[in-house]
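Section 3.1 - Work completed
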Amino acid sequence: MDGNHEDFNILYQFPIGEDGLRRIRPNIIHIPRGYRSLLTAGRTLAVLGGANSIDIGNRILGRSYWNEESITEADLTGLGNVHADVMIGHDAPLHVPTLDTSLEATAHWWPHTGLAYAAAGRAMFHRGFLQVRPRIYLGGHYHLHIDELVDYAVGDEEFRTRIVILDQGGSATAFSQAILNVRSLHLQFFTRDGRLLST
């Protein structure tokens, strides 16, 4: 799955296989936006990568950011409106209290254009999130760990999602990686050196 800052000119040189996945190396697979799959125990998966770079003002188009980082209408169409148990992406849906508080506290660091660009990208992701209505969402992008239950509504339908944002991997104690049990939807976090973390 992609996020932001990827060199999409290189990434898109690799073809998508018959299984819908893009193989970069034998041990590296890119999951394209809109990918759907049936997991163990009948669980379903939906994928929506992409995120807008808040620091776009410090980046150079085609060298340190690419237009393809932004989620498009075509991406949302490809994602579809069918519910999935598990959703993975890079950005985050709207109305996540811990994340929103953190973003408000750091907004003064960024110019208005960067804030507006990032907000537009998150709004696009949120639309895709509401299309999927997952039980659990796993993302990254914000370089901090968040794990909370959030209630949403689409028309008359209400649903609750466990929103999990993984931290950046720079710390040996960071909640930056986990194994998802697709039967129970339980997450086991662990450190880079293999120590288990409890939540």
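Second construct:
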Amino acid sequence: GGKLVKFKIVLLAICTLLLSGCTATYELNIKENTFTETVKINNMNLTDDIKQVYLTNPMPVDYRETCYLDYDRLVKPNEIEKEPGINYYNIKESDNGLIATADIQLKNYKYSRPLNYAFVNMNVNNYDNYISIYGFDGPAIFNMYNNLDSFEVIISTDKEVTDQNADKVIDGKYYWTFTREDEDKELYIEMDSTKIANEKKKKEMDKLQSLVIISILIGISIIAFISFLVINFKHKRNNKI
């Protein structure tokens, strides 16, 4: 409602004044049913007041149930109290920016702030055995951060990826880079929630094969040792006779 509009206006004004040629990175690590988010904002001109606002009072993960900060509460961070039952991002200062992290369960991930703000439309689906993340209708984050140059998304998962449109894939991580020229660029990744990633599966299979080979070698060694004892015993017995 009105608080949401006011909050966005104030946030946009602050970012417009303080962000100059900055870049943002959103990293998402999916393991089992936990979605771990890491948001990095680089080259951000952090004044003492803004440090106090962001570092002392990180934004909540669940924006549905949290009343938005109005102007007075935004410029007077000491008066802001965290609401019980709401998860908050852990925000700390980096060399020249901010790093925010949060662990979110699968059922609540669709309400997460970063990707909802990053794209005009965002869908997170969990149906049958599949999980999909779909950001479409172009990036919206550049409308909020006027001096943001680029926005990178990095997703890694322990599940088997069945479909994706990443710009590149390196060591099992999926990368998307968005700029102001990417008006219609989309993000899509689909995973089979019942299967582990091929690389992890291969490592487990290799480990299992190694155990089987070791077990066979141990078995052969035991059989050979027992055979040696039996032959040696018979040989000694025959010599006595």
